[in-house]
Amino acid sequence: MHSGMASTLQSIKLHSGLKKILINEDVLQARVGELGREIGAFYADRPPLLIGVLTGGFMFMADLSRAMAVPLRVDFMAVSSYGDATNTTGVVRILKDLDRSIEGRRILIVEDIIDSGLTLNYLVEVLRGRKPADIRIVALLKKERERSVAIEADWVGFEIPDEFVVGYGLDYAGKYRNLPFIAVCAPDISGTA
Ligand code: IMP
Ligand code: MG
């Protein structure tokens, strides 16, 4: 059992600029646990290398990997889009690369959110060039919106409305990553809607 309600109220008091809670801590933890068990079972024969996409994916990676009952390995990549936030080009710069070769390994990319899908699309192309045995994708969140690129995650935690969200690893200008739930930013600070 999580003390979801109490910590939620505490966090709300600590953080201004939130419009509403979209996914509360209990619902979030239940779904991440469910995903971990399902994905763990999928990889039971041959465990994968989990590749966490920093920084947003750090909390999901920590909880998901603990819910997967297989002897897996983890590594992290940090990427940044060229151009500004509102004009993603789809080309990403690798700020931190993997520590080891992925050739011949099964890899699972662990992402926080699929918005346009451009970042993930590029990342998959880069990693595919390194000849892993297979590549699969799990995204905690996926926005319901039109996309210029077709990107299919193998597992998605929650489909969410096309709004700017924060918490559980996701930030607005570096803030809110430590919230234990997913919240929608207030319009005045996020600049959306
Ligand atoms: P995409 O390339 O448009 O799919 O999104 C790239 C990255 O933008 C994601 O991995 C997130 O780090 C960030 N991002 C997209 N939407 C949101 C949001 O609603 N809140 C916080 N970060 C977001
Ligand atoms: Mg990200």
Please tell me how large the radius of gyration is: 17 Å
Tally of extended strands?
9
Molecular shape: globular
Structural class: alpha/beta
Poorly predicted parts: none
Give the strand line-up of the largest sheet.
4-3-2-5-6-7
Which percent bin holds the helix content? 25-40%
Largest sheet: 6 strands, mixed
Strand content: 25-35%
Amino- and carboxy-terminal Cα gap: 35 Å
Q: Averaging pLDDT over every residue, what do you get? A: 89
Write down the secondary-structure element order. Answer: HEHEHEEEHEEEEH
Task: Identify the bound ligands.
Answer: inosinic acid, magnesium ion
Can you characterise this structure?
With 193 residues, the chain is of the alpha/beta class. It is built from 5 helices and 9 strands. Strand 5, helix 4 and strand 6 form a beta-alpha-beta unit. Helix 2 packs across helix 3. It starts with a helix and ends with a helix. The structure holds inosinic acid and magnesium ion (MG). Inosinic acid (IMP) binds next to strand 5, helix 4 and strand 8. Magnesium ion (MG) binds next to loops.
List keywords for this structure.
single chain, 193 residues, alpha/beta, 6-stranded mixed beta sheet, 3-stranded antiparallel beta sheet, 30% strand, binds inosinic acid, binds magnesium ion
Topology:
Layout: H1 4-14, E1 18-23, H2 25-42, E2 49-54, H3 58-67, E3 73-81, E4 92-96, E5 106-114, H4 118-128, E6 134-143, E7 155-160, E8 165-166, E9 182-185, H5 187-190
Parallel strand pairs: 2-3, 2-5, 5-6, 6-7
Antiparallel strand pairs: 1-9, 3-4, 8-9
Helix pairs in contact: 2-3
